[in-house]
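Example record used in the benchmark description.
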Amino acid sequence: MANHDTKLSLIFQALSDPTRRAMLAHLSQGAVPVSELARPTGLALPTVMRHLQVLEDAALISTEKTGRTRMCSARPETLSATMDWMSEQRAIWVARTDRLEAMLKTLGEKDT
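Model output (structure tokens):
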């Protein structure tokens, strides 16, 4: 994923809200109806639906209407792609700090 990838921005925006993170955690156990996701939040159903739309726009969940029930499922592959990006960023910063440490060690040796 590129640094300026719109999809990545949508994912981080979706994950920035604790209610949406709680919904994702609940979905890690398997698909559930919207009403079950809404129950622990104490939020009105329209508010819950807006949260779910943000998650769906970020491709973190998928929803499917079965009769009168809307079922929600997690899409773990999206989180995997996000973790790949985060791992790349971590590797870059670890390399930078390693180079800084080496430079400081060299400077310290020159002073003695």
